[in-house]
Fold:
Amino acid sequence: MEFVAETIADLTPSVTLSITSEAKRLREEGVNVCSFGAGEPDYDTPQHIKNAAIEALQGGETKYTAVSGVMPLRKLISKKLREENHCNYEPEQISVNCGAKHSVFNAIMACCDAGDEVIIPAPYWTSYPEMVRAVGAEPVFVETKKENGWKITAEEFDAAMSGATKMIIINSPNNPTGAVYTREELEKLAAVAQSEDILILSDEIYEKIVYGEAEHASIASVSPEVRDLTITINGFSKAYAMTGWRIGYTAAPEPIAKAIDTLQSHSTSNVCSFAQYGAIAALTGDQTEVEDMVAEYDIRRQYMLGRLEAIPNVSVVEPQGAFYFLVDIEKMGIKSVNFAEKLLSHEKVAAVPGAAFGHDFSIRLSYATSLPVIKDGLDRFEAFCRKH
Ligand code: PMP
Ligand code: GLU
Structure:
């Protein structure tokens, strides 16, 4: 007898998480590893957020909360989406989940049946296809072009649709490419989705991390009709350095919000009660630390851009958001998993192979790590590229 269900047995573990823990393990063994693996801020959570959670804990916020989250938090998220993102979702349409990863999973599970197709522009965040497969639906990949800044065009979206298409996943700012869609680009994609009533899952977890001229736009702000097709997903992990807290949220059309609530009531119940009070402090408190973190990411980004552009046989598109470089290694004639393994064993540099993102001739370097580590790591990366 097979113990594990077929749909689950076929899934692959998250490479982004496994590389990060492998680098940690090596470091604990005393190996001098430079890790470009983690898609996790290297900062600690701001103190006022920690204080709010501690106060809530001491004050007795130790019970189950409403499944979708405490009302003050849902009201604040609704207000934030209205004021910052220009999309109206009522508090009843908000569901607070155990990290944005859980939000994406809830949204896919609430909307997709076996046989449904979900359009995923590639390169993509590693978990999307596996979540789609986990519910028996089918990922349909659209290879985006480097010359289009790794962004799916309306024409490409239109061509990928079939009678079975249920949803498209848009992730801007993008992991792993750093692409940021303009409002005009989102309007064109929204028009295609509207033409066939396709749901849009908009993963905006990196919204605060944008650079230079780039501006984050929410596709749900295009029009009320588009909002009624869109599940907007965001969270606290990246902007507020709160990865371990596990708080994300979905803002969805009412029937989907209800379905997510029902699903969550039978799975995780609510997000940790006192962590929700930390999230309230994150939204209401001083945003200077967020701005400072982004300014520091930008310094690293610019440093890395200069260094990477000077290395022969690799190329990059300047990232406009998030904290990753997707380095094209095609000219080196070696596939990503092999490249990443050799880079780790020869130079002790950890990076995520592009295969995890549906692009086998690239390597993802995260710059959510300190400048000295970046400098050392790039010296080694450059030496590796010049030798091979
Ligand atoms: N979406 C994207 C694109 C991500 O890179 C991540 C990173 N973990 C998540 C969602 C999930 O974030 P979390 O579960 O930590 O809130
Ligand atoms: N999202 C981050 C990454 O891509 C963290 C790991 C994960 O959740 O997959 O590296």
In short: The CA atoms of residues 118 and 167 lie 5 Å apart. The pocket of glutamic acid (ligand 2) is lined by residues 14, 16-17, 39-40, 101, 126-127, 175 (CB under 6 Å). Residues 63-284 form a domain with the Aspartate Aminotransferase; domain 2 fold (CATH 3.40.640.10). The first strand starts at residue 34 and ends at 35.
